[in-house]
Amino acid sequence: MFICCKTKPKKDNKQQKNGSTAANSDAESLKHSKCEEDIHKEPFQEIGNKTQLTEKVKKLQEIQNKVNRIKTYRNQGNINLSIDIEKSFVTSLIEQDLPTTYFVEYRWAVNYTKFLERIIQDVPQTINNDKLLTEENAQKEQVIIKSEKDTQLLPGLQPDRHYVLLNENSWIFIHLMYGGGPTIMINLETQVMSPDIFNDGQTNVTLHTANPSKISFEPIIEISKQEIQLLEDSDKSTNQRQISQKTNSIKIQPKPYELPYVGLNNPKYYCYMNSALQCLLSIKELNDSLLKQQKQQNKKFTMAYQDLLKLVQNSIPGSAISVEKLQNMCLNKFKYSQQQDAHEFLLYLLSEIQEELVGKKKYQKEEFPNAQQAWDVYKSRNSDIITDLFAGQIASKSHCSQCQEISEGFDPIIDLNLPLLKKSIPREIKLYDCLQNYFKEEQINDVWKCDKCQFVNKSVLRKIQITQTPKYLILHLKRFTQIPKSQKIIDEVKYPEILDIKEFCEENVEYTKYALKGVISHMGQLNGGHYVAYAQRQNQWYHFDDNIVTKDKNNQHLSDKGAYIILYEQQ
Ligand SMILES: [Zn+2]
């Protein structure tokens, strides 16, 4: 909900008619409105005219009443009703055409959304916006961001990663509901804003609604009979006709926003493709974004994936469909007559879609003063959903044996290819050990010339660290090896349901916790064998074996012996 409010219905609201707050939610008009003298007045400052004041007081009262009502139900133990009311009310607030100028810490917003979606049951804690502020500002009650060079915020903050922006009414509501703080708001009056309102090279604050690749889904707006009753009770003075208008204006949309579980037919050796697709199909942000892509002939992979999504969307749960289009498109790369590699296919498909969305780009190694700048540049050149969801960044530090200088290089990553750490006994490998092995400091036999002293190192001490964590972490276990001989390592790799990669990240990396999202498993030997996948649909784990889909009742997804690609989602 907070993380998904890109599409907002255009409403001809009263404030617009007054001509004093002509701020629409979309970036263009918002940007435009800042350039005009007539700027939206913030609540804590002067208020324009009487009509506006009455409107505001009314709105505040409505919000306060709603908060009281929700809290009352919650105290009475009527949780479901309280969530119903809260969800529909906060959705309506978010959809109001007002500038989004209030900060909410991202994790809090995600948890809150999950709570409203009933994915988690714990009632949200108090709002923890202090995380966004430098130490000396974290204790304040209210922080007003005035200029591009504002130093009250922590440097390096990014929208949809560290915070989301809300409009005033939504903020007032959640602040009254859950307390905490501080209130962090952008003062529009002192701003002459570009679409990226602030960009001092360190902090990158952009308007939430200005972000083109916003996570978005159609919220299910539910209204219970009790709620309609309450609407009537709450406003006895309103006549019957108005009441019916009020209730009619609330749309009931039973449209599911998550895909049903659907099998994929396998006419020949396509289990590598099917298993990879089933994992991708569990990523809601990817589905939502690719479904919204305009039809374009030159985006053939994106369109083929979109067609697949639509087919799955309209299929009966448990049925199986054909993926012929994608199969044919991949024939050049993946010959149909033989078993192919699911990892290779996964990366191929992602890179083809990425290329179609942002254009073909050669990745050139460039020098950057720090990881953040390298990342900002990379992100600005790749503003696509694949980068948003899967890309991370790794810094590699090389130690010069002559001058002792440490040189850093930064590379974007889409996945981690982990060699299996072999242990003699027992024949059980832990994923975490493989990661430790992958990230350990190593003496590499590599000729490397130091930039500082120009000394040519014959071998170099090198350490890699994660400097940007991806939203979805793809871990590829290198089971198939060519050297010393072509073989498959069949040992079981134990992987956790919750993975914390803090140890492998640079100190200032904040969100390092991941939860298992999908597993692609390979059974059998090097040539031949079979791929299956475990993935979620509507919060339920399924076992996808081509056209046959079964509920994963025994939680096999947690300990499949053939795990080959493991997908984690950032928490
Ligand atoms: Zn040197």
What is this entry, summarized?
This protein has 571 residues and is of the alpha+beta class. Helices cover 31% and strands 22% of the residues. The protein is built from 16 helices and 28 strands.
Characterization of this structure:
- Residues 81-190 form the DUSP domain.
- It comes from Paramecium pentaurelia.
- Residues 6-34 are annotated as: Disordered.
- With 571 residues, this protein is α+β, with helices and mostly antiparallel strands.
- Helix content is 31%, strand content 22%.
- Strands 13, 19, 23, 24, 25, 26, 27 and 28 form an eight-stranded mixed β-sheet that branches.
- A hairpin with a 4-residue loop joins strand 7 (198-199) and strand 8.
- Helix 9 crosses helix 13 (342-358).
- The chain is globular.
- 34% of the residues are buried.
- The chain binds zinc ion (ZN).
- Zinc ion (ZN) binds at residues 400, 402-403, 405, 450, 452-453, 455.
What is the mean predicted local confidence, pLDDT?
78
β-sheet strand percentage: 15-25%
| Residue share in helix | 25-40%
Categorize the overall geometry. globular
Rounded Rg = 26 Å
Sheet with most strands: 8 strands, mixed
Structural class: alpha+beta
Bound molecules: zinc ion
Classify the oligomer: single chain
The number of helical runs is 16
Terminal Cα separation, in Å?
17 Å
Report low-confidence residues grouped into runs of 5 or more: 1-47, 191-256
Report the strand count: 28
What attributes does this structure have?
single chain; about 575 residues; alpha+beta; eight-stranded mixed β-sheet; four-stranded antiparallel β-sheet; 16 helices; disordered N terminus; binds zinc ion
